[in-house]
Amino acid sequence: MGIRKKNNKNPPVLSHEFVIQNHADIVSCVAMVFLLGLMFEVRQYNASFVFCSEETTVNYFHYGLKDVATVFFYMLVAIIMHAIIQEYMLDKINRKMHFSKTKHSKFNESGQLGAFYLFSCLWGANILVSENLLSNPVSLWDGYPHTLMLFQMKFYYICQLGYWLHAIPELYFQKTKKEDIPRQLVYISLYLVHITGAYVLNLNRLGLVLLVLHYFVELLFHVSRLIYFSNEDRQTGFTVWAVLFVLGRLLTLSLSVLTVGFGLAGAEKQGLNLAEGSFNVLFVRVTVLAAICTTQAFMMWKFINFQLRRWREHAQTQTLKKKPSSSKSKSKKGQVYLQP
Fold first, then answer.
1. What is the pTM of this model?
2. Short-list 67, 323, 36, CA closest to 199
3. H helix or E strand, kind and range, residue 47
4. pLDDT, tens digit (0-9, with 9 covering 90-100), for 60-89
């Protein structure tokens, strides 16, 4: 069953326009090949533990090369979901609102990211509560390396990687402007590097907390932008987002320094041991902290530029509003002066 509506004009088969118009159907066919593999029982890096007190078996998972195929499959699923949200939700709203081209692209971006951030934030928060990571912050570094994960933790990271990988071909499918592609690639690369780093270095607990925190702040921004597009007078959400953005950066740095700089530095297991999955050495800790601090500084720089641009635009609009009133007052004065 087709996902995207077909135009009356049929482009040549395998042309760029044909692929763009039918990319969801093409990806669905490829995904069906992977679904056939689910008919066979294949255990992926799992280990079972039996608790004598409860006589229950709990499956824990770790990562490996097989995850590459799994991530690729969920990348295809993300492309299909992207097309469904675009076709049956965002396009219908766009036709009713009659946005300009600039607002149209920004509305689609906020709609797609807002849906993803909401889903990921709720899902991540549920994992944090179920594994008691919020009530026991020491667990972020206690018992490192955290090589074994419950299924929902591993599946969460797989889906995150699949989603941000899908954003790369979407640049082609959505006909992104050439001048916007470098910005989007930097944005996507930062997510992939940090999520992969947390997953591979067995810092999945810290990564989950930071992702939920970051996603919550980003969700507020995109919801505020969607509200702004519906009514340009409603800008309160941007003010709340600006405050939480700064607090989020400070909290991210604090948790990172506390976990990596102090918690892992004082842990019992020190040294590099690939067999056990331990990367608790000074070089890795410094690299992780440097990457996090550099990213937070980059985000703050972008945030300051964004706020300055908003203030300039606001000042320009205020100036334009004052000019007509001042010109009217001058004309009235001239008319009074010319009267006999």
1. 0.84
2. 67
3. strand 46-51
4. 888 988 899 889 989 999 998 999 999 889
